[in-house]
């Protein structure tokens, strides 16, 4: 299980290859890559996004992500998992986050990957600031993300 917070971009193919390297018990890998959009809707208005800056709380963020992976491992048969989350200045089209889950079967991999992403969006201490022609604004949590995470509650 690995968690990396970094400013540098990542290579999806390379990361998946490393995740499965040498482990023939892995029958499935599900992954999610999040990217910076060039538009965001706020209160019904579409705002052109020129860039984004992501901040985190060092140490606390990594622990939160490790705990999310541990929760997924307790629910599904996860052989390995990886979260890479970028910080710093990003432009539209840039990759922000990678979640990859390796399992013996696709069902566990898909569910665990979706769970990790839902919890990451709502429980990991990251802060996003978007830059638009109208100025900079901190991105608020979305109700849709909270609802997605709530469906995993017992």
Mean pLDDT: 94
Question: How would you sum up the major sheet?
Answer: 5 strands, antiparallel
What is the tally of beta strands? 9
Oligomer: single chain
The number of helices is: 4
Helix content: 25-40%
State Rg.
Answer: 16 Å
Total individual domains? 1
- In CATH terms, what is the architecture? Alpha-Beta Complex
Would you identify the CATH H-level superfamily?
Molybdopterin biosynthesis MoaE subunit
Structure description:
- With 154 residues, the protein is an alpha+beta fold.
- The protein has one domain: Alpha-Beta Complex (Aldehyde Oxidoreductase, domain 3).
- Helices cover 33% and strands 40% of the residues.
- It is built from 4 helices and 9 strands; from the N terminus they run βαβββαβββαββα.
- Strands 3, 4, 6, 8 and 9 form a 5-stranded antiparallel beta sheet that branches. A 4-stranded mixed beta sheet has the order 1-5-7-2, with helices on both faces.
- A hairpin with a 2-residue loop joins β8 and β9 (135-138).
- α2 packs antiparallel against α3 (106-123) and α3 (106-123) crosses α4 (143-150).
- It is globular and about 50 Å long.
- It starts with a strand and ends with a helix.
- The model has no long low-confidence stretch (mean pLDDT 94).
